[in-house]
C-alpha cells in the first residue's frame, strides 16, 4: 500500500524512473491492449494513479516513451 510519507512517483515529474512505477504502467498498458480501457483505468485508479496521468498513459494521440528499467533505449 502507498504510504503518504513516501514520495509520490506521479507528482513533480512525468518521467518513470523507478522499476515499480514502470512495471505498474506497463501492466496497465497491457491491460488496456488486452482487456480494454475500462479495466486499465480501474487498475490505475486502484493503484492511486492520478486521473491526468491515467489520461496521458492511455492516450493514443501521444507516443509512449520507453520505461527506464534497464539499458537506455537506443538513440536514432
Main sheet characteristics: none
Q: What proportion strand?
A: under 5%
Molecular shape:
globular
Structural class: mainly alpha
Per DSSP, the total helix count is 3
Distance between the termini: 39 Å
Q: Kindly state the percentage of residues in helix.
A: 40-55%
Low-confidence stretches: 1-5
- What is the ordering of alpha helices and beta strands? HHH
Number of strands: 0
- Tell me the radius of gyration: 13 Å
User: For the residues shown, what is the average pLDDT?
Assistant: 75
Question: Mind explaining what this structure looks like?
Answer:
The protein is globular, with a radius of gyration of 13 Å. The chain has three helices and no strands. Helix 1 (19-35) runs antiparallel to helix 2 (37-46). With 76 residues, the protein is an all-alpha fold. 46% of the residues lie in helices and 0% in strands. It has helices at residues 19-35, 37-46, 51-58.
Please summarize what this structure is.
The chain is mainly α. It contains 3 helices and no strands. The termini are far apart.
Topology diagram in text:
Blueprint: H1 19-35, H2 37-46, H3 51-58
What key attributes describe this structure?
76 residues; 3 helices; single chain; mainly alpha; disordered N terminus
